[in-house]
């Protein structure tokens, strides 16, 4: 069941480290320490080895939200519909790719803890996000690296667009390096992913000023400013703005934004 829309998203109370979660496929996962939080969810290290303490080099994570929150439900539906590993492998073979930066989805489920209901999703562990690297390097990334990143993101966008989805929130904070191979870049966080063409029926272009300016303000596409639903061209436009910022350090309109984080 989808979450109820009238409930406000909020950060959940932490789950107890060491508890065992069972996903919908009856696979069990041991919950490790929390390593991140943000938006509306928490991220924990995890392991399928139930009797062994989880080390810092664990290769799985579990994302947790309250059951009534929306972003993790939307992300889960994206992975179930569009990002099954067998489909990704077929696509890579067709396109002769050795890498495609869509994170590996391992499972999902629901759990009750101390009277509260949670939704969880098990993913492969990724490394640093590009925003952290961008800030650490003085808000500049060399053009060769930017082109390398851009090409990898374009591969991901071609795949998800072909599978009826747009990402809707491309930015450095949602681009994560592989945990062991930092030259590989993943496009993560599909909580705002939008199914623009369900069952092959393209949704109509429609401007709605009441819904304008959604998303990360400095990277908002022209369509989004007009209140149009997320689109393929909007993803590409936003990627272009990101690449320009990484090379130049800032975008021309950033100084005019009073609350760019909104």
UniProtKB/TrEMBL annotation:
Q: Specify the enzyme's EC class, one word.
A: transferase
> Record's InterPro entries?
CK1_Ser-Thr_kinase (IPR050235), Kinase-like_dom_sf (IPR011009), Prot_kinase_dom (IPR000719), Ser/Thr_kinase_AS (IPR008271)
Give the matching Gene3D superfamilies.
Transferase(Phosphotransferase) domain 1 (1.10.510.10)
Please give the SMART domains that the UniProt record associates with this protein. Answer: S_TKc (SM00220)
SUPFAM superfamilies (alphabetical): Protein kinase-like (PK-like)
Q: Which PROSITE patterns did the record assign?
A: PROTEIN_KINASE_DOM (PS50011), PROTEIN_KINASE_ST (PS00108)
Q: Name one GO molecular function term.
A: ATP binding
Domain Protein kinase stretches: 29-262
EC annotation from Swiss-Prot or TrEMBL: 2.7.11.1
Which Pfam families does its entry note?
Answer: Pkinase
Against PANTHER family, the record matches this protein to:
CASEIN KINASE-RELATED
Give the protein's recorded name: non-specific serine/threonine protein kinase
Q: Which organism is it from?
A: Micrurus corallinus
